[in-house]
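Complex record, two chains
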Amino acid sequence: MSTDNPAPSPEKLTLQHVERLAEAQSLDIDAGDLANVHRQLQLIASHASLVMEFDLDEEIEPAGEFRP
Amino acid sequence: MTDHAANAAVIAAAIRAGKVSATEATRDALDRIAALDSRYNCFTALTAERALAEAAAIDRARAQGATLPPMAGVPYAVKNLFDIEGLRTLAGSKINAARAPAEADAALVQRMQQAGGILLGALNMDEYAYGFTTENHHYGATHNPHDPARSAGGSSGGSAAAVAAGMLPLTLGSDTNGSVRVPSSLCGIFGLKPTYGRLSLHGMFPFVHSLDHAGVFARSSVDLALAFDALRSSADDTPAQLDAGIAGLRIAVAGDYFEQGDAQARAAVQAAADALQASDRISLPEVARARAAAYVITASEGGALHLERLRAHAAEFDPLTRPRLLAGTLVPAAWYIKAQRFRAWFHRQVMDIFDRVDILIAPATPCCAQLLGQETMTINGTSMPTRPNMGMFTQPISFIGLPVVAVPIHQSGTMPLGVQIIAPPGRENWALRVAAFLESSGAARAPIVTN
């Protein structure tokens, strides 16, 4: 069985989303930085969309280094 | 007086033979740094007093007839994210300058000291290693010795430029997405990024725990091997064996995604392939997605690492770094986890390819060094942001922790550009053998340049 993750849409990430997400993280983003942070998050989202649209079997675990 | 063009192995041999003292070699390197560093801005701190004390200890040991360690008297320096006892570990930041000085050396600095290396100082980098250009607003940009108007690459730009200019034969750096291989390529020197986990990261300021590697810069494959043998964690590992040649190694060119570089990048790979008589081409699956996943993991882990600092000291970050790290704190967990799951998948696919081939060759950068401050570059008619895209060929490889030697290809009338020699996990010795072959055939070389 494959996962069915909807790919993120960078264009749907608005400045208001960035402000709200930052507020939830207790981050105070300077007004002069906001547009640049928004652009950077859209860029990350465009990369994430490539990853999220790819079907992977559910049995595939995250790569990890934790070895108890 | 030592020959500043001498490589580490030659300096160590001269000191063992008594042709030059470790103190003379150290003073010569310090003089050369004093003469050149204002031009290239490689160093953020010098450890001259410590270096001269370490050199004097080597000279005393030799005078007493002791067997000297393999790198006795070899001057070296480290990216300023390595802990150096008594110095503040800047990691390229202003924020870290307020931290207490390190109480001990990083593990790899300790290993270099055990091998007889003489530590001369700490080297410039992009803030918190998040960049490919070493344009640091706190400590200034590092300039490329081939053309000071151009970037030395990053994030270990100071480490690469210092070796390229002949200030030192050897430096250490780190590589999360390409920060050894990109500056090696742009400064025209050799760089080694070993297998993920092969070298200790203890005492190094982190960036992305899933992807961080330590690495080495030098002007010869022999020096990379010498340093790697001194630094690696297990005494049982296979030594580099450079004289074994390339007989028996199945070598192929990585095609498709890795053919997107400009004409010079493609020519560099072809030059290496011709020298190696490698005509097979192999396509790795889903490389663009691998690069994208590395990008997501980097953003998320990097942002999470600096969350508290972003809350308390946002204004003190480098303006090139701050927006990227802030955006990284906002990445949904689902994106990050899918990227880590994709990493496991991609690793399996590439391991299957290594059943059929031993070495893959690919460009290290899509083009040669670009001008400092240049926001965009055009590759095959496509305009793209310069800073993130210098790592487009290195990111998918470090994503799954493969060992790589970046070898410098100098073509007439152009800036240098590197080629990645990529091996299966734990096979640094194969990549080093191929690099040594390319060097001995004349296809790869790393001349000192001080333009």
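Note: Chain B touches chain A through 40 residues (CB under 8 Å).
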